């Protein structure tokens, strides 16, 4: 795929993100103002729940509103996560990016993690559910593959690499493990890379990897997302250079 085509595909699969503790209404207005470009619109904006009502007034329906749950701590508290989901859905969220209690997972409490994911899936109902497994904290091949398998068993819609709030976020190596686990399962599960992806060349690696493992037509917004805050400008620059 040439660079212009790749950049166009990446824009359409972008979760344009602002998850800073000091975000203001003006920050979210600016973010939403970037969601529709001269070439394509992004897949979603990803924001804190308190900004959902504002975003709904600013975005076309083609751009989904994603928000975060149990973020970024990944607490082992099912009740709290369910309350956050209920609130976010009432506010109008279309997609929910929920952090796996990865410390409980690392403590080998598989039964709790499975129960957590089951409750989360039920609470999200038909909303798009992306489970953040925090690959940089899981570290090992076995941990990443096992966590991905738990998400698949729980019927998550996407498996997401990272919150972007830990020292190590998305890597091609962790993406490869998640994608291979999805492929081997045969299930219709998507993949989202997030955290530290700022340049076109970095993002294209995940697009190319997804095509290689899942097939050339697989990386569409319903299967493939990139979560980033500053990537969009480089994608637009790539397109403008190519035209």
Q: Mind explaining what this structure looks like?
A:
This protein has 243 residues and is an alpha/beta fold. The protein is built from 11 helices and 8 strands. An 8-stranded parallel beta barrel has the order 1-2-3-4-5-6-7-8, surrounded by 8 helices. Strand 7 (190-194), helix 10 (200-214) and strand 8 form a beta-alpha-beta unit. The protein is globular. The model has no long low-confidence stretch (mean pLDDT 97).
Key features of this structure:
243 residues; 11 helices; globular
Give a short summary of the structure.
This protein is an alpha/beta fold. The chain has helices at 3-12, 25-33, 52-58, 78-91, 102-106, 110-124, 135-138, 141-153, 172-185, 200-214, 231-242, and strands at residues 14-18, 44-47, 64-69, 95-99, 128-132, 158-160, 190-194, 224-228.
